[in-house]
Amino acid sequence: MRAARGIAGLIVLGALISATAATTPAPNRSPATHARALPHSAHPYPAEFPAGNGHLIAERACAICHSPMLVTQQAKDSTGWEKTLATMEKWGAPVSGADHDTLRVYLVSHFGPKRK
Amino acid sequence: MERRRFLLNLSLAGAGAAALGSLPPGARRALAAIRSAPPGVIVRNDWPEHWETSIEALGQSFHTPNRVFFVRSHLPVPEIDAKSWRLEVAGLARAPRSLSLAELKGFPAHEEECVLECAGNGRARYGLPSTSGTQWEYGAVGNARWGGTRLSDVLNRAGIPPEAKHVWFECADRAPLDSTPRFLRSIPIEKAMGGALLVWKMNGEALPLLHGAPVRVIVPGWFGMASAKWVTKIRLEAAPSDNHFMVRGYRYNYPGVDPAAAGPVQELRVKSLITSPLDGAVVPAGRVPVRGLAWSAGSPISTVEISSDGGTTWRPAKLGATGRGAAWSEWTSDAELKSGEGVTLAARATTVAGETQPPAAQPNAGGYGNNSIHVVTLHARG
């Protein structure tokens, strides 16, 4: 929230702030190094579809071409998922007519729009 | 590599491509783990690889090391035998030709230092209620030395007729399903002749497979999708490509604007990043050293400014190492922080051409081009 207030402050004040007249030191060509051990790689999204009516369809239709992670990080309403499904089916995702609605409902249920 | 091939063969055997989807989860995980992400990488998608570089890793060196350099592949990484690889130069070329890697390397060598940034970098930071695409935060960007030859040299050798206005790049990657469009980008002939490269070296090392080996395109100053990987064919054409990734993808669709009029995503936008302190860090109250990076499509960075009071006042940072052309610049500064939780620190870059970062970039449906001012929240104690 505090970060959000900070950003809001920037937005409000941004238009009022005139460009700085500060002088800039001449650049040099000596890049600094700040090497230290890095933490292990992060995996912020589930790599499997969550259980639920439709997850087997998702496994079968989506994971032909890409990891479930590409789905599990999304947030879309019904219209958004319908558009995505239409594109994926046009590109060959094997979703039968009966499975289409089940899959859309599953996706909206698990990966619906973010609440503000 | 053998293990990967085994798994691919396993997945594609018998029932065809659909079998990949029926692989048990353990086998799919193994497929993804073959190119396991190193420390410093955030895996936004495990296959195809969408790897983001952590801000901490970006802050460690002027040239982003190959092992942590962000990866964005539209389609699975192809298997290419460099010995049999050929680059066709075709379309309207007066003298179409097919070049081996050795023949391509016979052209004058050239190295360019530049930033490569995914057009969707920062998409997650738009905070859109409905999203599409990989949810990149800050690190789908890197700065490298790209070694190869000028695209203009190759095109000139093939002969450019006056009617050739665009250069199309066809690539070796393809989806498991043939009905999925191939990835293809084209750029205007002026851009192709004005600094684009055919690259086989990255930071002085052989170009890694994940980054497009044996040969990729680098278009300095443009977002990453223009820099096609695994290129196999260059076509001189009169018109831009009508491929999905040109006509529908990579367009700025703003709310209330006719999608048919959406402009193409092309040039990088001026941007800066605070690499230290990291967001959420606990720092001692008082004078705190700050450092970061700033870049643009090519106009040199003239100033980077720091604000620790929500944008009321700004202080200039000191510019440090600066690359040529569209490489990034390092900067350092310090900020006087009063004791408190949730103290914000912001950085704003401006170019010689007068382009400056907005407090908040205008959201667009694809989540492209987010160059909003970077803000970190710190906890100043003591």
Descriptive report:
- The complex is a heterodimer of chains A (116) and B (382).
- With 116 residues, chain A is mainly alpha-helical.
- Helix content of chain A is 44%, strand content 0%.
- Chain A is built from five helices and no strands.
- In chain A, α4 crosses α5.
- Chain A is elongated.
- Chain B has 382 residues and is mostly beta strands.
- Helices cover 13% and strands 35% of the residues of chain B.
- Chain B contains eight helices and 24 strands.
- Chain B has helices at 2-12, 18-21, 25-33, 55-58, 101-105, 151-158, 189-193, 244-247; strands at 41-45, 50-53, 71-72, 86-91, 97-100, 109-117, 141-150, 166-171, 184-188, 197-202, 205-206, 216-218, 231-237, 251-252, 263-264, 271-276, 282-284, 286-295, 301-307, 315-316, 318-322, 329-337, 340-351, 374-381.
- In chain B, the strands form six sheets. In chain B, strands 5-4-13-8-9 form a five-stranded mixed β-sheet.
- In chain B, β1 and β2 form a beta hairpin.
- Chain B is globular, with a radius of gyration of 22 Å.
- Residues 1-22 of chain B have low confidence and may be disordered.
- The chains are: A mainly alpha (116), B mainly beta (382).
- At the A-B interface, α1, α2 and α4 of A face α2, α3, β1, β19 and β20 of B.
